[in-house]
Every structure is written in structure tokens, then in C-alpha cells.
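Feature request disguised as a bug: please show the residue count (740) next to Phosphoinositide phospholipase C in the output. Example input:
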Amino acid sequence: MQQGTLMRKVKSKSWKKQRYFKLQDDCMTIWYQSKKTGKIESAFSISDVETVREGHQSEVLQSLAEEFPPERCFTIVFYGRRGNLDLIAGSAEEAQCWVQGLRQLIEPTSFPLTSALVSCTWIRDWFQKADKNKDGRMNFKEVQRLLKMMNVDMNEDHALRLFQAADKSESGTLEGEEFVLFYKALTQREEVLSLFQDFSEDGKKLTLLELVDFLQQEQLEDEGTEELAMELIDKYEPSETARARHVLSADGFLMYLCSPEGSIFNPRHRPLWQDMSQPLCHYFISSSHNTYLIEDQIRGQSSIEGYIRALKRGCRCLEVDCWDGPNGEPVVYHGHTFTSKIPFREVVSTLGKYAFKTSDYPVILSLENHCSMEQQEVLAQQLKAILGEQLLTTTTDGRVPTQLPSPEELKHKILLKGKKIGRLEDMLDGPMDEAPDVSDDDNGAEAEEERRRVKVRWTQHSPALQKDKESLAQALSDCVVYCKSVAFQGFQEARSHSRPSEISSLAEAKARKLIRDTGNEFVRHNTWQLTRIYPSGMRTDSSNYNPQEMWNVGCQLVALNFQTAGMEMDLCDGLFSQNGCCGYVLKPPFMRDEETLFNPSDPSSWEGPGPVTLTIQVISGQQLPKVANSKVGAVIDPLVRVEIHGVPVDQAHQETKYIENNGFNPHWDETLQFQLHVPELALVRFVVEDYDKTSRNDFVGQFTLAFANIKPGYRHIHLLSKDGTSIPPSSLFVHIRITE
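Example output, currently without the count:
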């Protein structure tokens, strides 16, 4: 890896500034400084980098394609919503040096990253931060600075005692193993040690049978517990001698509790675990609104990055607004606003490249078509030419569907949602009034009645058909198969005249009114047809509505502004973090039954299994991050709030008291309890805030998951940032009980 390189940092075609980039000695941090002033402009950690793209793989670099060859260009992509960094190196060799070096640093190593290795990484990281004079040693003044950085407000005498205990050489400084000793003393987990000793006869180790007792009694593991205990010892016990004796030390016990197996999220539900052979309408589907925007709705930037980020997060329904562009090329932007424009061709190319990198299951492209007939022909041509076999242009079996196909049947397919001329059966079976074959009198009578109703309906709608023919290109219409957009005329009208392959889109306010007035009908409607919900046009700041109330009635495509962080996107990420992050989550059985009595506003009308009680003991927190832009030396006063999002009767939140001046290892030991009437729809959100008695509390971290994915027992909750990215090693330690 180059230790320092002069490169161009690019923000637009006209903004190209030379900056000196350098990898720090810790191999974890990169900073860059102005060539003119020498001032360090910014720095970022390798852990912030998600990937590196070579060549002209951003709009900015594409706009410079004639000026700079792809071999000299690359893009650094960060986790979360942080903007990308586009760079142009002085030569292809320099570019490759940075690209390959960064990839080596960010990509997983060939050996498993154990808790011990993670711990060593963090010890080194803290040492580098605190060792201000960079002499490889730490004096007591630097230790005091370290404690402030780690969010610890510790008594000076106690800190000095820890320092002197670790200073085995009595040199007045800590180095190497001495600092490791100091760090371990600092991070001693008394609450975990106490739990360990409750099950250990000698207080030093857990035998295989003692570990089995813990797994059965506290973690409520009921299958293959002896095999599981052996696996955990082999995986997390750092001592070879202890592993050979099939025992678990206190260090191994802590590593297990901090591992995926010790997480609150059931590890069996992380990979694909649900039935994917049901009709599309039986799933909640991760959906984005105005996907091309990465800022606000009025002046924000339109970018293919919006599509890449959404698809990488498992989004399966994307939106594209198409308008006539110059030189016969349609463009994508938010019409009648000052948002920037991108060619439709680039959006489709991006979709073809990224659609199935995160998930194999179908992508729905929701097309808002504002183009002339001529440019609609171009839309159709580009969709077919660029996507090829990926674009679905006929039904899976060539027949008129009586229900929607399944995600499994539509793997690696892109479905276009939009207006369509006539009906799907006209493409497949010829004349619309042709009666189906019948074999008995009863069926013949039913078919005759159906034929009569079809003719009446066709006559009634023929003016609309003629209007569609005049405003919609046939080639584009033919690209729409299972997702024909139709205006919503009421549930009775839909039941009488609509088809499973039709879909209505509703603004959030209209959806709320239907939920309030006809909740059960809405649930029934969503058992056989797709419904898309989108944000109010008044949300010009790209804010979001609460998706939970829409999921409560089974709406599948609840479209959110993915670019805007907050509680609403936390709920979305929480729901879709299961099932392999494939973007599809199977609805509970009572939301897939066309005769269901379920109404979220009145759960008592539905004969469910009865309420369950969720009891959460919030025990402690570990290395909680400081609040962004906080004062130097400030230490947070953390509290934990637990929120239940579900049907109205289940909506609730409770919080702990706040702990003064301790973000490093706060202890709450408080118990919160909730009763859930419809746990199948509940999401549980854990939020850590910095208490402020004079203003709103500041956000520290959160974690959200579906109630169905909670693993009871002693569990760690690994916190996420406002952007939904992990903030290791920040976590909460809790004890979970679920009773009926």
C-alpha cells in the first residue's frame, strides 16, 4: 500500500482538487490534506469502508470518462448514508496499489475473525488513539485521556490503582502486554463473571454438563444441547488445554455471550428460513420511494447510487420517474422540481448489474411514466435490450394466472409495475369473451355468467381502453405482466372486477383512512392482491411515515425514503434483517387467509392464540459511543428505552433511569415488561440515548428486530448507528423471558 499519494478528489465535472492521501501507521486510518495549505481536511477509518469500485462507476467519474481513463479512477464506498469518495490517481499503477491495498484491509481474512482477534484489534485501536506522542508507551496522563475517549468518568485514585497494577516493570508507563492487562482490568465484566460463577462449581470453569445446564435453564435451548455445548467450547474457548478437557473458562464464556450465538437475534433466522413458494401477495416486500433521490424531494441530487444502496440493503421494489429527455433519451428525476436528472439507460444498467447481488428473489420496478409515445418506445427498447432475460415479459406458465406466482418461481426476474393496455389475458388467450372449456352443467352455468359479466365490464371500460391506447406505447404495455397499475375504486369493486395481477398505489393518508374505517376488508384484500403505499407529497424533506400501521393490514409494498435515517427506517431494516436479508418476509397465517376475521384495530374480533408477556431485564451496557459533536471530555448519561411497534393495543414504550457520566460500562439492572396481543406483527426497538434535562435526549445507538426473531435468555444486543451500520464494540446485555 502506498504510504502517501497525490490524487484528485472529485465532486463534480468542474470540482477537481488535488489532495495528498496517506495511510496511517496503524493501517486503520486514512487522512487527506490540502496540497496548497497542508491542512488535514478529513480522515476515515478502514472499518467505515464497505467496498472499492474500479473505473468509471459513479456519475461524476462517468462524466469525466473522456478526460481520464478508467484505469486511473476508483470510488471508495462507505457504509450507511455517507457520500462516496471519487478519486483519480496519477497513474494506473498508483490506482491499482490503492484499490488492491484497500481491498486487502477491508475484505474478510482467510481465517475466522474470532472474538479474541476482535478484542486485540480494539485494544490496539485504543492504544493508538491515546498514545499522543507516538512513543509506543502510555503514561498516566495519556491513560486519563484514554478514559475520557472511552466514555469513562473514573475516579482518579481508582484509575491510578489500575495503572500501577498493570505497570509490572514499574517504569511509570505501559507498553505491550502491560497495556493489555490494563485494558482487561478496565473491561472486566462483573455481571458476566457472577453469572458464570452461578453455574460453575469451582468458580474457574464450566464443565460440559455445567454448560449444558446453563444452556437449558437460562438460554432455553431444548435440542441437542450437549452437541451445542461442545460446539461452543471448540469455537470460543481460547485455551487449547481447556478445549481438550471440554471445559469453558470465564474468557470463553464471555466470548460466547458476545458472539452471534449469544445475540438476541435468533441465529437460525438470519439465513433464508421461510417458505418462499407462496404467492407474492403473502409477503411483506422491502420497498423504496423515489429511489433515485439521495437527498430531499425538491432540490436533491438524483443518482444511480440511490439504486445501488437500496438493492444492497435488500430492497426489492424500486421506483423510477421517467420524463422526456434531450436527444430522444428519457431521463429520471422528480418532475416539476429542481432535482438533478440521470439517463433512464443508466438506471436500467445499474439495475441489471446489482439486482441480484444481495438477493435472488424478484425485483419490482415501479414505473412512473410521464414520457411521450416516442420516448415510451425508447423506454421499452432499453428495458428489453439491457435487461434481456432478466425482464419478465410473459407469465411463468403462459396461462392466465388465478393467483400471483411465488418469489421462488420468479427468482432472478425483474417485474415492471405500470399501466397496461387491456388485460393480461388478452396477451395470452386471444379474445376476451371466449368462454373457458367446461365439462359439466354447473360449471357451464358459471362460465356463462362469467362471460356475461366480462362483456358488460368490457363495454363499460372501452373508453378507458381507447384512452390507454392513445397515451401508452404498446411495446411498453407489453412489458407489464403481474403488476398492472389500476386506480383503487374500493374493496368491493376490486373484489368484483380486479385480478390478482393488478395493483393499486395509495398515499399514506388514504391508507390510514381505509385502515380506520375498513381494517378487516383491507387485510382480506391484501391476501390476494398487492398494495403499494407511498409517502405524502408534503414530505418534501424526504421524511417517512410509520410503516408499521401499513404492515398491520398486510400491505406488501410499503415504500419509504431509504435515504432518510430514523425510527421508520429502523423498523424497515429490523423487519427485513431476517430470512437472509432477501427483501421478502412471509406474513403470518391469519394475514394469508382470504376469510380472515383479523382487524388490527380490534384484535379481540380474531381468535388468536392469546397474549404473551415479554420481560426484559436491562442489565448493562458496554463501550457506548459518544454523541456526535459533543464537547471535548464530555461523558454521556445513558438510558435505555424499549419500544414495541405493532397493532395499536400493543404500541408501548418504557425506559430505564439514566446513569450519570458512564458510557463505558453503565449498569441499570432494571426490568421492563410488555404484554403483546398480536406478537406475530410486533417489532421491538432498543434505543440508547444520552439524557439531557434541558433539551431533547441525544441518540446514541439502536437495534430493532421482529419479536418472532428474539432468542430468550442472557443476550447481547449489538447496537447500530443512526445510519443502520454497526458500531462495535457497543452493546447492551439483557435477560429476556417470554411467557404465555
